[in-house]
Amino acid sequence: MQRFHLTATGHNINYLPQYIAERHGFFQEQGLDATFSIPQPWDGVLDDLAEGTADSALGGIWVPTMYHNRVTNYTVFAQIANRCPLALIKRGPSQDFKLADVAGATVLMKSGGGASVGLFFKMLLRENSIDPKSVDYIQDLDGVMLGNLFQGGMGDYFVTDILSARTMADRNPNVSVAMEMVSQGDVPWSVYYRETATITDEVLDKQKRFLAALAKGIDWVLQRDAESFKNELAELFPTVPVQVAVDVTNTFRHNSMWTSPLIPRGGFDRWQLGLVGARLVKDPLAYETLINDVPVLAALKAKSDQS
């Protein structure tokens, strides 16, 4: 067995196929002793890569994008989440809600896990011809704190992860989920990357085997209604009502959250334009500048040959 250590920015339901691959021995089938950690604060993943204690980081592609040719170059080699896992909560019922309704409102957006929440929401506004500057934001506080403040009367809307949003709406009849952003098109939301300078043939081979197991995990989830593995969901997300976890998983299954470890060019290009709009980079990076798809293509070919 070869060790493959992954350092991740959090424990999220959009990482579910990876957790399934671990629980069902798919990594071991590829000769990998896969281990996982979540540093605090989240940007410790970069320290883990720099110190060589991790084979890969898992997090937002906006980090490798903004670091490129400025601090450290990272190579992205796959994705796990193909859509945004956030949701927008509002006060009262959500019938007839339109995204344009947020203009002139105050929107709370959780922080603590990076900048992705604000980056995506403001990109979505621009894509829908809504000036992000027409909205007031409160976004430099912890998600739990903001959730409590929102329910206590602060602001008009709250952007948070879909599990938290559905749990809040399930428990609080005074709020509702206005939009689930998994329905809002492809972006490589959660990706795997490491320092470009550290990539060797051995690294590429380990990445290929890791991705073969991940692809099997994705297929496993897509082929099963979440009700059939609700006990696993309960163990993975013990603080969430199990039916909420089941329903969110099925929503993700049916809305292209998980497709393939291969990053689609269309989603990549869209997210790059969003990062330009956020001023993280001056110009969008080309696909080949940031991504090496050789390991994932090799993994998918091997999977196809075995079918």
Could you walk me through the main structural features you see in this protein, from its secondary elements to its overall organization?
- It is built from 13 helices and 10 strands.
- The protein is 42% helix and 18% strand.
- By secondary structure, the protein is of the alpha/beta class.
- It has helices at residues 16-23, 26-29, 44-51, 62-67, 116-127, 143-152, 162-171, 201-222, 230-236, 242-254, 265-277, 287-290, 294-306, and strands spanning 2-8, 32-37, 56-59, 74-81, 86-91, 106-109, 136-138, 157-161, 175-180, 190-195.
- Pathway: Cofactor biosynthesis; thiamine diphosphate biosynthesis.
What is the third-level CATH name, the topology of the largest domain? Answer: D-Maltodextrin-Binding Protein, domain 2
Question: What average pLDDT do the residues reach?
Answer: 96
Q: Would you identify the CATH architecture of the largest domain? A: 3-Layer(aba) Sandwich
Number of DSSP helical runs: 13
CATH class of the largest domain: Alpha Beta
| Percent in helix | 40-55%
User: How many structural domains?
Assistant: 2
Gap from first CA to last CA: 25 Å
What is the H/E string?
EHHEHEHEEEHEHEHEEHHHHHH
CATH superfamily of the largest domain: Periplasmic binding protein-like II
The share of residues in extended strands comes to: 15-25%
